[in-house]
Amino acid sequence: MTGRTILVLNAGSSSIKFQLYDATAEGRLTRRFKGRLEGIGSARPRLLAWDGAGAVLEDRGFRPEEADEVEEAQAAIGGWLVGAMGGPPDAIGHRVVHGGADYTAPVLADAAVLAALEALSPLAPLHQPHNLAPIRSILRRRPELPQVACFDTAFHATMPDLARRFAIPEALHARGIRRYGFHGLSYEYIAGRLPEVAPEIARGRVIVAHLGSGCSACAMVDGRSVQSTMGFSALDGLPMGTRPGQLDAGVVLHLCRDGMGAAAIEHLLYHRCGLLGLSGISADVRELLASPAPGARLALDYFADRTAQAFGALAAAMGGLDGIVFTAGVGENAAPVRAMIAARCAWLGVVLDEARNAAHAPRISADGSRLPVHVIPTDEEGMVARHVVEVLRREGRWA
Ligand SMILES: Nc1ncnc2c1ncn2[C@@H]1O[C@H](COP(=O)(O)OP(=O)(O)O)[C@@H](O)[C@H]1O
Ligand SMILES: CC(=O)OP(=O)(O)O
Ligand SMILES: [Mg+2]
């Protein structure tokens, strides 16, 4: 294999993240640039990019109407990427949120794979169509360019049968109505980092909290997923920016009987609930932390309460707990939110060191804390790039 470039695309719910890697003949990866278009659908969409050394390459605001939908935002950064890459990449890796029951490992995306993944779009309407749109258009224009789909659900394939179940009839379970779990590329990356940055807990029972626009927590034993707060869709579990998290199914029935149609309920649950719905102000934790409004406080209190309760449930699922890891946008950057969650976990033996927490130190727990608490920046795109090399070598596409 000679030197090649890999473009990675990660379309989240409020942002599109991208990275360009150089892959050496041995498969070693060096990041040439990374960036994101954030604030899609907000008043201030913004494109940010940095080169491999961390110097700013781009910092550009967009008018809200230029990026109020993910498709427009993808078109806007598509042009920027073509210029920045200076030529087409040799392969593209995509984060794809839902792999369903069949895709439990990264795959080369051809027309048949794409069709199977499109059938899963109703299960992740905020993500899956946006993950698949670039695969489809590149397959059409450049069918020879290898594209690898990497799944958020795949890391959770190790969950025991009990952890995959809902208390519903077997026939529905057999139809695939079960817990899948998401944010798996992030958890896989963190599992790989634990032996280096937190060797004392890497083989133990760890809760990893991926708190971003979408939020979930994973119970990991020896680096493998045994339980996730997210279930069948990316709606369940912890409260999120615009999604409610765990919600009595009776609420949905009630709205339905009250005359609200499926499309309106879907819009409500994916776009108007969570921190935004509770606060009436914003889905963005930065804005909520800066706001004196009671709604902002209510939203953050609810978020911290439900997250700490989920930690208790995940600890019970593992029969104990050896450490906690915070990651993703909120988990890596919002020290006051980490402190609110940690205060509710004092009974588990969590004591934070205020100065370390404020500095986002790698270990934010106090020296006397029974449980170590770490902050580990995630890298979903880096994980995708590694899978691209593995898959293309395995398939004989890259010698
Ligand atoms: N400095 C910060 N302080 C508090 N919250 C932050 C900060 N930076 C980012 N966030 C939060 O992280 C969220 C985005 O997380 P991220 O993991 O990038 O989301 P996604 O990939 O799902 O779009 C933002 O909506 C914001 O609430
Ligand atoms: C699955 C999910 O919620 O992803 P994101 O956090 O990128 O919205
Ligand atoms: Mg994300």
UniProtKB/TrEMBL annotation:
GO BP: any one term: acetate metabolic process
Pfam families documented for this protein: Acetate_kinase
One cellular component term from this protein's GO annotations in UniProt: cytosol
Main subcellular localisation: cytoplasm
Source organism superkingdom: Bacteria
Cofactor comment text: Mg(2+). Can also accept Mn(2+).
Localisation: Cytoplasm
Leading EC class: transferase
Keyword ATP-binding appears in the UniProt entry: yes
Binding residues for ATP: 17, 210-214, 284-286, 329-333
PROSITE patterns: ACETATE_KINASE_1 (PS01075), ACETATE_KINASE_2 (PS01076)
Cofactors named for this entry: Mg(2+); Mn(2+)
Sites where the protein binds substrate: 95
GO MF term list: acetate kinase activity; ATP binding; magnesium ion binding
Pathway assigned in UniProt: Metabolic intermediate biosynthesis; acetyl-CoA biosynthesis; acetyl-CoA from acetate: step 1/2
Binding site for Mg(2+): 10, 380
Keywords tagged on the record: ATP-binding, Cytoplasm, Kinase, Magnesium, Metal-binding, Nucleotide-binding, Transferase
Catalytic activity: acetate + ATP = acetyl phosphate + ADP
Site (Transition state stabilizer) location in chain: 183, 243
Active-site residue list: 152
Enzyme Commission code: 2.7.2.1
Function: Catalyzes the formation of acetyl phosphate from acetate and ATP. Can also catalyze the reverse reaction.
Family: Belongs to the acetokinase family.
Subunit structure: Homodimer.
Protein name per Swiss-Prot or TrEMBL: Acetate kinase
Gene symbol of the encoding locus: ackA
